[in-house]
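Run log, item B.
One chain of 307 residues. Sequence copied directly from the ordering sheet:
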Amino acid sequence: MRKKAGWCILFFLICLLTGCGTQSQKEEQAQTYVYYLNSEGDKIEGVEYDLPYGTKKEQVNKLLKALQKNPGEGRQTAIPNYVLLVSSKIEDNQLTLFFNDSYGNMDRSREVLARAAVVRTLLQVVDIDFVSFQVGDAPLKDHKGNFVGAMGADTFVENVGQKINSITEQESIIYYASKNGKKLVPVEKKFYALTNAPVEKAIIEQLMENGEDGEYQSALPKETKLVSTSTVDGVCFVAFDEGFLNQNFAIKEDVVIYSIVNSLCELSTVNKVQISVKGESGQIYREKFSLDEMYERNLDIVKKKKQ
């Protein structure tokens, strides 16, 4: 009997300690932040917020109101005033936000940071693990026309777990394919790059976009997806998925290769480029370009400006 009583006391103490531990963890995680943009609109800044206890829906509504309130102190709301949040819906662990069509008027850099600020704010609500955006009657698409889908804790993370916090404007020469696919066309472009992501990645993303005036086009196959970039000792290693092998024979093979090489070699840190597909560099691209090799800048196939 005495032994049984001892076990009961021990069980009670374990439950008590476990309960205290859980409560302590909740207190540690209790600090909530509402994320805004700085006055320049190129950086995310968190402001402490006292989130009252309540249901999941109540807490989401509180944070949504806080996100729309003018933060002052050199900050601005992540979503501009001309964009209207029409409604929201919670299904299980996913929150969907419905915006009017004006959401599409945000410039690309602002939109990425705004989305990151909103999602990171709302994911602090217990049991909200994903946030998705609807614009008008359709799910949100990125600048390439791809559906963004549900966004979670890992969506806005770049390079070794760093969270996306800011964007910087870059300027470089990007080499596109000419209209007939036989030459390279150098285009001076301004674009935005994440401060904690390689600028090489931003350059490849620019290469994937088609020209606005029809005088040049992307040399890369539409299905191409970038896996990674890294630069070591002046050599930039670029890894694509198998989509890179989906050929567009209207564009010459040397134009495809040197579109990548010349664009990256505009960086002072890059002298050579090696390309791999599905993690393998030991293959021949089309007929004559070995992916085992490191390629240097080639200006011989650059289209000359009209005199």
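Observations after the first pass:
- The chain is about 25% helix and 30% strand.
- Helices lie at 2-28, 56-68, 108-122, 199-207, 253-264.
Flagged for discussion on Thursday.
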